[in-house]
Amino acid sequence: MKKIGITTTVPIEILLAAGYQPVDLNNLFISDPDPARLVNIAEKAGFPLNCCSWIKGIYGACMAYGIDNVLCVTSGDCSNTIMLMEVLKLRKLNVIPFAYPQQPLPQQMEYTLQELAQKLGTILEAAEIVRAELSPVRALAHQLDDLTWRESVVSGAENHLWLVSSSDFNQDYHKYRSQLQQFISECRQRVPYPDDYLRLAYIGVPSVYAGGLYRYVENHRARVVFNEVQRQFAMPEPGSSLAEQYSNYPYPYSINERLHDITHEIARRRIDGVIHYVQAFCHRGIGDIIFRDAIKLPMLTLEGNDDFVLTSHNRTRIEAFLDMIKLRSSKIDPINTYKGDIHED
Predict the structure, then answer these.
(1) Is pLDDT at 177 greater than 60 in this prediction?
(2) Structural domains of the chain ordered from first start
(3) Residues 193-204 pLDDT 10s
(4) CA dist 233 to 41, 55, 66, 89, Å?
(5) In this structure, are strands 69-75 and 20-24 parallel, antiparallel, or unpaired?
(6) How far is CA 159 from each of CA 113, 187, 192, 196, rounded to the nearest angstrom?
(7) Do the strands 273-279 and 2-6 form a parallel or antiparallel pair, or are they unpaired?
(8) Is the model's pTM score more than 0.90?
(9) Which residues pair with 198 in a beta bridge?
């Protein structure tokens, strides 16, 4: 199958029906043995230093891995993608724009999907057949998520990796399904995490230092049991059609669509505190104001750009944040603990 790069989660059922193999360029970038080299490729090409590293990494991945076809999401994700698309055109790549509708209405979405299918030389009926084929694969991803927060036998890092990979199913959904089935079987044999671990929610886009973040919080007797955007990649509300499925996917729309999902899951998963990750130079960082107003739990906001490991500064902030939650919830003995004022970050 001919590879086609995607700049974020898109209706891959249409791409597969058209004979393309979707490749999530974000995952290609961040899983590279040296992601900084991909950023350097973009900066040498003229991308400014104060541009999001994900955008630069996507460009670098296209150049380094020879991705000739790219589906760029021009509405519902990153505003910088519009200019990235123009640069990719300059480099003679075959660029296909895709815009999520302004509102999550199935009727509008169906028109958008039909337009995309026509561009790629297929029809929605063929994509619906692919959707049915992907349904059991997505169901496995949801099982993994349940094992994370209900059964406490899957780590936050493992949850992140499997769910974030559902954007393109690691470029092979048959292999993804087989490997995930085996992994779930292994997890069911594990001893659950202790009940005294703090339960955290991670909201916002996946971070550039994801692995280190999850390991660090677990080293301090806390664990992420809700990965917001990653979970949505697996389409937890598939609906009865492709149009409904991508209308129920809240990320491209108003922040209120995301808030509805976040607050519901926070209550359902018994969350003690929230980590909100924002990418430097990203307009979505402004949404932190809204999240802090709506979510009535301790919240730590972390920012990242091209630091692919957890910095000592952020480690200190995370540790202080977790200590504050433990004090507030009486999950640690406050005797001999600092008695000064404690402020939420």
Answers:
(1) yes
(2) 2-125 (3.40.50.11890)
(3) 999 999 999 999
(4) 28, 19, 25, 27
(5) unpaired
(6) 29, 12, 15, 20
(7) unpaired
(8) yes
(9) 222
